[in-house]
Please model this.
Amino acid sequence: MILKERELLQIDEKFICRLREQDPDALAVLSIKLISDLKEVLERLNQNPSNSSRPSGSLAHWDKGIADDDDEDGSTIDEKEVLRPETGIDKEEPSDIADTTEEVSPTSKETTERCKPGRQMGSQGFGRTQKLEVTGTTPHSCGCCSACNEDLTSIEKAYTGFHTVNIEFGNTDSPGVRLINTLNLYYMGRCPKCGLENCTEPWRAPADNSDWKDVGMTQWRLVGPDLAALIVYLSMDMRVTRRKVKQFLWDVFGLQLSIGTLQNCMVEAARALEPVEAQLIEDLCRESMMHADETSHNEAGKRLWLWVFISSSTALFFIGCRTKEIFVNLFDALTDFNGHLMTDGYSLYRAYLKRLRCWAHLLRKAKGLSESYTKTSQTYGKQVQDILNDLIEAVYLAREGPDRGTVSISVHHQETLKNLRKVCDAMAVSSHKKTRELGVEFLNDWEAIFRVLEYPAWPLTNNEAERALRHWVIMRKITQGTNSEQGSRALALFASVFVTCRLRNNSPLLYIRDVINMRRQGHDIPKLPQMPALEVA
Ligand SMILES: [Zn+2]
Model:
């Protein structure tokens, strides 16, 4: 919008007539501004989730399913987290699980008492008492009159202002990080020519029905975008508790910020990032291979699931129930996705036809059987292990080979597969529970399991997805989960952005800084950083 609300209120019939007599050219200029604003308002009125990047809330209904745990493959999620693949199929990175020795934050204990975060009713409030030296002033000048373009710089006066504390990242010439405290001044002045009272105002998002009512998007913020991004980075990427972030800011920058202010920064950043989800879905739909996995999540005592859908360059996280309804809804959003989907044995995924199965899970179950006390189960387990390991060898050879994995392994191993099928048929009716389950699993997922043999360049395990979840599993152990729907939403958005930026070899810190900066001024969210182009030697 070019004209401020306060200015519009002054422009009426009388004002227009007067301006026409004084300066017809100025009236033309004003009319152009009015038309432009009118069009912007009309466009905004016609906006809906289908034609804009407006937060659609379309993902919110995923949160609203009802848990049904009877539709599972028999393996529990906890089992997945505890048992890491030992198959040596794909090399695992060293686990950073050791981090869990970090203390449980005092804030998470407080949350179990279910009091509303922030200042409690009746408690004494604390204003900001710290006086920081002002390191710079940013004038928000009117410049020229909105109506007649008369120069106002000599008569306008500052009428309001606020401080923003921020950090400045250094560069190669001057490295390091510096704390700055900027005084933002807003000006007003009555135009001597047409009489319009001009003024500048910090941008503020118009009220809407968004889920983030408690923290508005506005320029009027104590914490600058770089510092806000650092707070998000420390909390989410470094898994530092709010209390520790507060301590860090005091120790490193001598800056006093309350836990409430830090919390506001987190909510504001999540709100700012919300439109990124549409970009992530768009990017995922273009991929030819995607991994999916899920892990349990605690939201205020409610058992939910953190899902991840991840490709080589994009990750989408969300928190909801582990139900069919949610999966179907998610695939409605990913309707343009036409690639292959790598998953574990969770039966819900069977609805997706172009599916690949993680072999690590199968090998783990086969190993379990080979160590059982029933002779036939032992033999079956050994057999499955041997066959899968032989095929893995063949897949690796094919990948290295001159055909680069275009030769079909299933043709060469026809007999082996036929035998395995026969054994699985027999085991699917075994009286031994685990043996029967593995037999049935093979029969149910046969196509998905052995699809990789047609194109050996495809992955054999779901390690990509499991690795992407691991950081958040550790975080869950530290924070005990989230305590509201909004907190869960924020966590999923942050996870999506951090993992995607990392996959693209870009800094999530700087991207989040840019997002906060742009959204505070009412601009669209910047595009997610793309993969850096490969350097050609
Ligand atoms: Zn004027």
User: Anything to note?
Assistant: The two ends are 48 Å apart (CA to CA).
